[in-house]
Amino acid sequence: MPSRVPSRVPADGEVVVRLTDVRKDFGDCTALDGVSLEIRAGEAVAVMGPSGSGKSTLLNLVSGLDRPSAGSVVVGGEDLGALGEKGLALFRRHRVGMVFQFFHLLDDLPALDNVALVGQLDGLGARAARQRATELLEGLGIADRGDVHPASLSGGERQRVAVARALMNRPALLLADEPTGALDTRSGEAVVELLTDLHALGQTLVLVTHDARLAERCASRVVEVVDGRIAGARAVRRDR
Amino acid sequence: MRAVWTASRAAVARRRLQTFVLAAVVLVCSATAVVTLGLMAAVSGPFDRVYNAANGAHVMAEFDSSKATAARIARTARASGVEASAGPYPVAVLRRPTDQGGPFGLPGVFTVVGRDRPDTAVDTMKVFSGRWATHPGEIVLDMPQGFGGARLIDQETHVLAPGGVDLKVVGYATSVSDSAGGWVTPAQARDLGAASTQMMYRFRDAGSQAALTADMAVVTAGLPSGSLTGTGSYLTLKEHLATGPNTYVPFLTGFGLLGLIAAVLIVGSVVSGAVVAGYRHIGVLKALGFTPDQVTAVYLVMVTVPAVIGCAVGAAVGSVLGTHLVRGAFWGISGNALVAGKASVPAWVYPVVLIGMPVLVVLSALLPAVKARRLPAARAISAGGVQQTGRAPAVQRRLGGSRLPRPVSLGLGWPFARPGRTALTLSTIVLGVTTATLAIGLAASVLTFDRTQEQQDSVQVTVAVGNPAAPSHPAGPVHTDEQLLAGLRALPGAAHVSADAPLQTRMAGSADAVRMDVRTGDTTALHPDLVRGRWVSGPGEVVADSTFWHQQGLSLGRRVVLRDAAGRQVVETVVGEQTDGWDLTSTDWNRFVGLNSTRRATEFSVGLAKGADAHAYAAAARRLDPGLRPSLNTGVGPIEQAVISVISTLALLLVGVSALGVFNAVVLSTRERRKDIGVLKAVGMTPRQVVAMVVTATAALGVAGGAVGVPAGMLAHRIVLPLIGHGTGRDLPASMLHVWDAPLLVLPALSGVALAVLGALLPSVRASRASAAEVLRTE
Ligand SMILES: Nc1ncnc2c1ncn2[C@@H]1O[C@H](COP(=O)(O)OP(=O)(O)OP(=O)(O)O)[C@@H](O)[C@H]1O
Ligand SMILES: [Mg+2]
């Protein structure tokens, strides 16, 4: 259970992500076409769809890892199209946290430093950064694994370290691309639970998944992407 | 085989940049190898080639005409062992054109040979300006070509021989055998009182001094005893040209050797680095079903093809650069344009480089490629990544906790993650820094040597005295030497003034003329640097130049017998060894200069009072007498410039190679760390932070490389210089060794970092621009 509620949470209901008529081309291939989407603070949106439909592309646009070919992407009031490379880097650092299917931890660094790193990049002192990283790992139940290098961690542990890293700078938006895709069922369950808890604490969440059950459990809304277009959206009823 | 070829091509295509760097490194190294080998060969190569092309005399013999007739001497040409000959020619000994020292060279003995034509079987000469002397009253002078060239003959010049004989200079020619100072018709030579006869021989067996002595024994067998009065061997001439009056050949050789070693090491490290970096690819190949032999073959093809291309282009570049440098160096060394003009990189250098470099590349690739052969596929695939080894985790943890900006501390951690790669990169940087340090040290030593010889620290202004007999007929002085000395001393700013009169004399027991500098005035205040002993305290004492000291086996307190200006013998005591280049230096002006009414000072040296304006002094000196040509004693001599340009070209080449090596290493590591960099960018590392991280990773090595390379270069300088001194048979002044001061050390110390940053900048910017989304999608 996370020990702290992410602090830079926008007021509930405020629009955090607004995609307007977004297109994304890779050479001849159009990955996204005419996508418009709004995500409000406190929502947990699951993006679903067949393989190659453009889910990851969508997520990369929201996270500022990529730029749209046309249309606008506004996240947290910032028009990502207007930002330079440095601006995008700072945007990613401050506004979003990312969790990937294959963890993408730095093999050189022990788990704790993988988490602390993001704070340090922003000028946070080593001691303070490690302190916060320790708290995060504690909250995720892997405080005792802080000294261990990623190569020696289990898949589930690695993904929890990745989530801790994503939360390090208290992002307004947590983005996860197939966070359970590389995990066995049991470890996947644990990560799902973790994300559910985070959402329950108010964390805005965008989750890409193939897994309908996962979407049901974590998300308040499911967005369906097919062939680069939004094919439909539905709210998920849930007992809270 | 097709599969190997296809796989190699694919591998090259995947590593375009790396392949390009490999080719570039081999290119520059091949060029360096051609240049350095060419330079090293130039020390002896051109002499033999040029000497043989001009049929230079193996032995030049002089016979006493009163003991052996010309006809009898001519018969010696038929002695067994003689391959070709020229002569007999009558030899007259004159004073120099005027005794005042010029037009060329020093006053003293001047040999005039009566010779009917220049294109003889031995000592074949080319008249490069004007024509041959065909009538009485004409003379051709010996002159290195390019020393004024064709324009010389435009000025009417005369040589006044004793007895009022006026000889008009009609041509200039170069004799490779150094057979005479000038040539006239045989009849003219006899008129000039020729007392001896010159004969020149080329022998079938001329490999050593002993062989030449044996040859001459056969030649002179039937002659009356005592008729052979002197011989000159081409071996002495060669030695004189090769090590010469200056010290610089070994500088170049030593440096060339270092360059060669550096080139070999860097090529080795770049090639093996490329193969090691391909381990992951090797694993994939094996998984695809390539046999170990095929894997090895793929790797060899991958590096050999670009290497061969780079080598061929490099040899061509080296040929152009090398010929240029060899000529420059040889001109600087020999001062002989005939030799310098024909100097080039010897042909054998090309096959050596063209075969040697690819062989080197294959050998450096073979070791890791054979290792790759044995690597199990799974291990090889994982070996591509960054491993945790040894103390690395502890280091990373400590760095993570440091106060440094995180990109910097991340970069500092890189070298620890791959110790093998780090060692290779480090050695490349160390080589570059060592080379740069040694080059700077040698250049500083050359400059110091020049300064010491020219006494630039004590003499600020030199005042040349015009010699009306010189080709350009400058105005001569209206005052006497004493008046000039007094006048120059009286000018404002002058602290010390001395006068020089260089001349040639004979020393008993030595066949060669002795070049002597005679000084007067404030000689004690302005004396040259001494290696040992002391400066002369008065008449009867001389100091000797270091080279002359060792040639003659002198020692402190030795007596030498010289000829004074009137031709009488004088006994002088050697009291010191110095390095200003004159064989002997004396202050006995009266005896060596004053006794001969036609000799006079050719130059004055002026030491100024502290703070005096040298320009103002020079202007005042010019007004003192129209025959004075003052100049500031600053600047670098042409020989020194040639040597320094060669050293710096080589150093630049080698530093360039090192930078390429570093560049290659950084390209490899950023490639390996593509994913890490992508992740870091994804979590918010800015492009500038990425550059900082990559540059830091290399700059750390640059600092370490500087810390090792600078002392290594200083050590090399310390070892090389005395060796050079030893090799040239002279003692070097201590000032040549102690050239290091803080500003001079800053340069090479920074060069390590500069090298690293230079090599890292481009790949780091490339890494910072790469799309993180793209990287994370594919890795
Ligand atoms: N960098 C790229 N270059 C070229 N094509 C790309 C790139 N990224 C995505 N694509 C293409 O865009 C389309 C959408 O890809 P995307 O990765 O967004 O799909 P996805 O829905 O995430 O699929 P999956 O479920 O398999 O992860 C695909 O056809 C893919 O090939
Ligand atoms: Mg995807």
Automatic annotation (TrEMBL), chain A:
Residues 17-239 form the ABC transporter domain. Keywords: ATP-binding, Nucleotide-binding, Transport. One of its GO terms (cellular component) is plasma membrane. One of its GO terms (molecular function) is transmembrane transporter activity. The keyword Transmembrane helix does not apply. SMART domains: AAA. Pfam families: ABC_tran. InterPro entries: AAA+_ATPase (IPR003593), ABC_transporter-like_ATP-bd (IPR003439), ABC_transporter-like_CS (IPR017871), ABC_transpr_LolD-like (IPR015854), MacB-like_ATP-bd (IPR017911), P-loop_NTPase (IPR027417). CDD domains: ABC_MJ0796_LolCDE_FtsE. SUPFAM superfamilies: P-loop containing nucleoside triphosphate hydrolases. It comes from the Bacteria. This is Putative ABC transport system ATP-binding protein.
TrEMBL record, chain B:
It is found in: Cell membrane. The chain crosses the membrane at residues 20-43, 248-276, 297-321, 348-370, 423-449, 642-669, 690-712, 742-762. GO terms for molecular function: transmembrane transporter activity. It comes from the Bacteria. Keywords: Cell membrane, Membrane, Transmembrane, Transmembrane helix. Residues 255-376, 650-771 form the ABC3 transporter permease C-terminal domain. It is a multi-pass membrane protein. Residues 422-623 form the MacB-like periplasmic core domain. One of its GO terms (cellular component) is plasma membrane. Its main location: membrane. Belongs to the ABC-4 integral membrane protein family. This is Putative ABC transport system permease protein. It comes from Actinacidiphila rubida.
